[in-house]
Amino acid sequence: MESLQKLQPLLRSFVEKGPAGNSLMVMHQGRTVFEDYVGYADKESQIPVKEDTIFRIFSMTKVVTCTAALMLYERGLFLLNDPLEEYLPEFTNPQVYRSEQGETVVSPALRSITVKDLFTMTSGLTYPGDRNPTERQIAKALGELNKTQRENSTSRDLSKLLASIPLAFDPGTQWRYGFSHDVLGALIEVVSGKRFGEFLDEEIFKPLGMRDTFFNLPEDKKHRLASIYNREADGTLIKNETTDEQFHPNAMFESGGAGLLSTLGDYGRFAYMLANGGEFNGTRIIGSKTIQLMATNHLTAEQKRHYNWDYLKGYGYGLGVRTMIDPAEGGINGSIGEFGWSGLAGTWVLIDPKEKLSAVYMQQMLPNFEAIHQPRLRAVIYGAL
Predict the structure, then answer these.
(1) In the CATH hierarchy, which top-level class contains the domain 2-60+212-383?
(2) Would the CA dihedral through 369, 356, 9, 24 be positive or negative?
(3) Residues of the chain with CATH 3.40.710.10
(4) Among residues 20, 160, 255, 371, which is most buried (max CB within 10 A)?
(5) DSSP β-bridge partners for residue 361
(6) pLDDT per residue over 30-89, tens digit each?
(7) Stretch 297-326: mean pLDDT, rounded?
């Protein structure tokens, strides 16, 4: 795959116009076929991006969370169509905000949230915001928690808080990005009998040799955390000092939607395990048929109408991941069934079981330029096959 060397000038061009530094690993049929580190983990101190650089992966945590939950599904501990309240009773009799004759009213949901609704972001749960009453109520509730309460909250605490707020829509009727995978973390705790982070460490991280993947940043590894930057309109990078509360060594909250830290190599091992049918270096984590289910589009035509991010054209949504269903619509030279996700600061993972191919890209910048960087990386990687 000599043409993968085209990735080197591409990565450098990203750094010239965007993040302080980046890194990329591509694995294919059991071999690392490309690996590169460009620019700085901290621009002011001129600390380079290296193999041991730790990154905030934000929503790439979701792929790990959904994999962990599916491991428990494989053990018969829940079924996807089970009502969520069987495991998290706080979600019994969910309520929904509705608009009737110009008035906002609250009435019972037409059905329960199912476990599958958490995976597929069709639960009615949202993130905080200002677009609808649910988003505003979640923002208000989270805003009322002081710093100590936030740090000492657990996944189950968040689950109970969210369950007290009416949903944005009837479960199963729309796709809406939100806290669904954080609630999935609470479900994992209930059915496994372990803390969420403990389950991940014992069942995924240790078996795969992922020594630098965790929710809480150890003091002795703090110097390896890449700085995250806000990019101004003129290209100036200003260090962001407000994003790291949740990674404090003593923080209790383990966000299944956005809380993990990892390195390029660690996440690369996880990604290739999924590309390789659930096995890495002789260690099986999850079954290949379960990965197929994860990477199948689960959205109905009506749900997909709300899944309308431009840079995900050609993709459906599976059990917590984008999944390629229409290369022509997306203008994509990849495989049907390629899947993955990305993170707030521009991190990205591509997983292709058909080709036994995986790619992991890391950077730390807001806004993240994901619609510019990620499709170009994908085009070069598939062009090398």
Answers:
(1) alpha beta
(2) positive
(3) 2-60+212-383
(4) 20
(5) 24, 348
(6) 999 999 999 999 999 999 999 999 999 999 999 999 999 999 999 999 999 999 999 999
(7) 96
